[in-house]
Write a structure and sequence with these properties.
Layout: H1 11-20, E1 27-30, H2 34-42, E2 48-50, H3 58-68, E3 74-79, H4 80-84, H5 88-96, E4 101-107, E5 110-111, E6 117-118, H6 127-133, E7 139-141, H7 145-157, E8 162-167, H8 181-191
Parallel strand pairs: 1-2, 1-3, 3-4, 4-8, 7-8
Antiparallel strand pairs: 5-6
Helix pairs in contact: 1-2
């Protein structure tokens, strides 16, 4: 699907739609900035991990979680600018083939949180085509909100890694993540059942 045929959606709305579908303690890794601000605002879950700094590492971190806990479905939320900094992660994920990992790219064509500078690939590169070219055949643009929900439902049942790309507007994140790295880490590790609460 050409990105010009997709509806421009709202990140918080799309994130809320994802969270509403999670019923089995699925892990969600929120990339830096607005991706995790909206994850924070969409509803706290012990299985949410809110990244601070580390631009471009939501997918690599999610890959680690997916490999460590193959019985748990893992979702990763990332902005287009962050993904462009770490494109090699896509081919690594394709090669390792985690059955339980779905990547969601929120594409607004700008580095929004630092001043809305256009990304180098804005209007030129097709993130889904890049993902497919990296070996992730199970990749698609969400045409609209209902299509996004359908793609998430399919991701819940698939046995291969995949990527869902969403064109989003330039609205800022709804919340602001509490910047306490130790608390974020401990809460997430407890949520994944690998550590007792402090």
């Amino acid at each position: 699907m050409n990105t010009r045929n997709t509806k421009v959606m709202n990140r918080f709305d799309v994130t809320s739609r994802l969270i509403a579908k999670l019923k089995h303690e699925e892990a969600v890794i929120g990339g830096i900035g607005n991706s995790n601000f909206d994850l924070w605002a969409a509803g706290h879950r012990p299985q949410n991990f809110y990244m601070l700094g580390s631009m471009g590492l939501a997918f690599p971190i999610a890959l680690g979680v997916a490999l460590a806990q193959p019985g748990r479905r893992v979702f990763a939320l990332e902005g287009d600018g962050s993904l462009l900094m770490q494109l090699g992660a896509l081919s690594t994920i394709a090669a390792l083939k985690p059955k339980n990992l779905t990547m969601i790219v929120m594409d607004n064509g700008v580095y929004q949180i630092t001043g809305a500078q256009p990304t180098p690939a804005a209007g030129i590169a097709d993130i889904v085509a890049i993902a497919i070219g990296s070996g992730l055949a199970n990749s698609a643009w969400a045409a609209d909100e209902e299509d996004f929900e359908r793609l998430v439902d399919e991701a819940m049942a698939t046995t291969e890694p995949g990527l869902i790309a969403v064109r989003i507007d330039d609205k800022p994140g709804v919340g602001t993540t509490r910047r306490d790295p130790v608390q974020i880490r401990e809460r997430f590790m407890h949520g994944l059942g690998v550590r007792e609460p402090l």
